[in-house]
Amino acid sequence: MNPLSARVWLVLAMALAGAGLGAWSDYALEHVGAAAAVSCATTLLALLLYDTWHAKRLLRWLRGTQAGPAPAGGLLWGELAYRIERGLRQREQAAQREAQRLWQFLRAIEASPNGVVLLDTEDTIEWCNGVGAEQLGLDPQRDHRQRIANLVRAPAFTAWLQAAPPQPALQIAAPDGDGRLLSLLLRPYGDGQRLLLTQDVTESERADAMRRDFVANVSHEIRTPLTVLAGFVETLATLPLADAERERVLVLMGQQTERMHSLVADLLTLAGLEGSPRPPADQWLDADALLHEVLSDGQALSQGRHELVLAAPAGWQLAGSRHELLSAVGNLVHNAVRYTPAGGRIDLRLLVHGDDGACIEVADNGPGIAREHLPRLAERFYRADASRSRQSGGTGLGLAIVKHVAQRHGGELRIASAPGQGTSMRIVLPAPRVRAAGAPTAGVQPPAAGRR
User: Fold this and answer.
1) What is the distance between the alpha carbons of residues 128 and 105, in angstroms, rounded to a whole number?
2) Where in the chain is the domain with CATH 3.30.450.20?
3) Predicted local distance difference test score (pLDDT) of residue 66
4) 206-275 architecture in CATH?
5) Residue 307: which residues within 8 A CB-CB, separation 6 or more?
6) Could you read off the pLDDT of 126-168 as tens digits, one per residue?
7) I need a labelling partner for 112 at 20 to 30 A (CA). Which of 158, 365, 367, 399 fits?
8) C-alpha to C-alpha distance for 93 and 130, rounded to whole angstroms
9) Mean pLDDT of 180-189
10) How, if at all, do strands 307-311 and 345-352 pair?
11) Side-chain-facing half-sphere of 90: CA atoms under 13 Å
């Protein structure tokens, strides 16, 4: 029933009620008497006042906060109050459920590793999560309802924000100037509103740059010996050479072939290290035998040009891969042999620190390395002196292999050097991977050290 029909029926009901009351009053005065008529009129008036009082109570409750229960009683008004209160409570519960869902949604956005900023039609900040505020240098409370272009003052960002949609992703430096790189994405939603998404892509960009450098370096390292080989093959095919010259060319070709073989072998070693599980922590090997094998290989490479000394306490074991540790320590010794002038000294040591683990050190008294090169020495193909490294036969991957092996065994590679003071390189291993022979666990007091 529509409101107009309801009003019409209400007016008709009141008219009929008034007519009935008047007729009844005339009848009561004629047949019952004045006293009875007055009594009846008084009762009706009391009922009307009572009903009006309940109506006022309901109005007062509706005009207030509706904190307590609705007033009961009053016949029609009591029923009306009950139904109004039930509708209000249902609406409050629905609003509370919506608020709870909004709170959970905002908490989920707050937990996102990416930044989220909600912008209105004027590009003012309606809300942002903590990551977005940190990456863009914002304060969620202070900068609320502020135009984002006034807070992120980068010309590229302002132009991108004002460009016609759809805007491609934008990369800018973080406003705090800490060297981070941010990727920004803008998406429309709602009625003219926009969602600004931010992501820290510093590490991914660095990884991409390292991959590009790696591919470029591998191409360069392989192209050089291939060019030399191609030139020698052409020489052998087109020029009549004496036996001595032919022998010299074949020796040089063998050297270039060996260089490519070493490069491919090191690349395969790195790929194997990165794609295989960590070495077992319960597979023990004799440290003394390992270091003696490395010492023999180093002496063969040195051919008597250096003094190689092994110093290690007897009776110690290391947990891990024998092949990987042999490759890592061998790389350190080979580096020392290549870069230490003839007549120099190379020390191979096992230093046991009890509960602090142990380290395998290779130290030489060669020319040393400048301080600025030390942080990058373990990068692939990085050379402090590129020409000298290539002449010595290195691939530029040896220290990268050593670093990976140390990390896979839970340790690290430490390098100390200075020009004119030699170089010390250590593979540091944690205590759980070091034990005395026959001991069930690591951390046993080491026996007396001896020198061989």
Assistant:
1) 13
2) 112-200
3) 73
4) Orthogonal Bundle (1.10)
5) 343, 344, 345, 346
6) 989 989 999 999 998 899 999 999 999 889 999 999 888 888 8
7) 158
8) 30
9) 91
10) parallel
11) 6
